[in-house]
Specification:
Blueprint (H helix, E strand, L loop, with lengths): L9 H61 L1
Amino acid sequence: MDPTDLGPGTATWLGGTGTILLGGFLWLRKFLSRDATDRAMDNADIGTVRRLNELLDSERQARKEAEARAD
């Protein structure tokens, strides 16, 4: 038997393994990308809420000052 003869099906196994690894890598990349997108959206939501709270606080302060001047 020739030691360089890998036998029938070796190319099939190597191709299948490569396909599975490539598929796993692409799925992982998609999963991590989606997670990064979710984190970015969470950060944007937090930033929006903070900004709205700042605006609300400034409006409250302006109203208090206006009421103080009216009295």
